[in-house]
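[worker-b] picked up task from shared queue
[worker-b] task type: protein-ligand structure
[worker-b] ligand name resolved to adenosine-5'-triphosphate; SMILES cross-checked against name lookup, match
[worker-b] sequence length check passed
[worker-b] input payload:
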Amino acid sequence: MRDTEQAPQQAQNPTNFDIHLSGARVAFGGVDIFDDLDLTLRAGSFTCLLGPSGVGKSTLLRFLTGLVEGDVSGNITCSNGGILRNRIAYMAQQDLLLPWRTVRENVELGAVLRGERPDHARAEHLIAEVGLTDAAHLRPAKLSGGMKQRAALARTLMEDRPVVLMDEPFSALDPVNRLRLQELAARVLRGKTVLLVTHDPLEALRLGDHVHVLSGAPATLADAITPDGQSPRNITDPAILAQQAELLRQLGADISTDYGAEAVS
Ligand SMILES: Nc1ncnc2c1ncn2[C@@H]1O[C@H](COP(=O)(O)OP(=O)(O)OP(=O)(O)O)[C@@H](O)[C@H]1O
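[worker-b] inference finished, payload out:
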């Protein structure tokens, strides 16, 4: 894993359009997962989405990719026109690595599929950043779950798309690698519009400029919590810990009501 000084700089092509999702509805088997849901993602903002298991977080992310089939309605508009679907890098919960390709080939896959020449130097750099240099020649079957997730993260960061959607991208990582790769994502994705699903309130507050909780059935979005400062934030900061307590409350945890009160006042 490289030092931050050697790492790629922030996005060279910051995102310059807002995304408006309005009246979004998805139903499976006649049951609404969410209905009439609105969400705005401001240009270059990092939004995190929390919520109980099964509430519809992945479905909302996939709605933005246009991948949800069936009983789906609503509008997705970009403030500068154009179709969102073509401007997205999407990291699914399952790593979706091609089993017959090596780590390096998977990281370079996007360019290859587009018929472009991959930027080998950037790929090597990102592979090093996620700590997979020694495994770059291996196929996914030889990787641990965490290594596969790091390869998938490198592939997502490689794409340099204006909009990045990530579904629990760090869930299989040990705590130290998790912190390192959060830092990498914060740095490489700065200036991009990002929507990240996580179960970890501290991860959301470390990375997100806006942190929403999705809850209920049909699910609704709570107003965003907006931590101060630039990501990656210090998760030992008392104000962050107080916001973590608020998020845990929104998620239904039984947290003492005065926890962190001094930090917010
Ligand atoms: N293709 C599908 N067909 C039918 N039901 C589906 C489909 N995809 C998701 N669901 C259902 O929709 C609901 C929301 O699923 P979703 O994966 O969006 O939840 P989630 O909040 O991301 O959960 P988790 O945190 O466990 O990943 C669940 O009840 C799930 O079973």
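[worker-b] attaching auto-annotations
[worker-b] Residues 1-9 have pLDDT under 50 and may be disordered.
[worker-b] releasing lock
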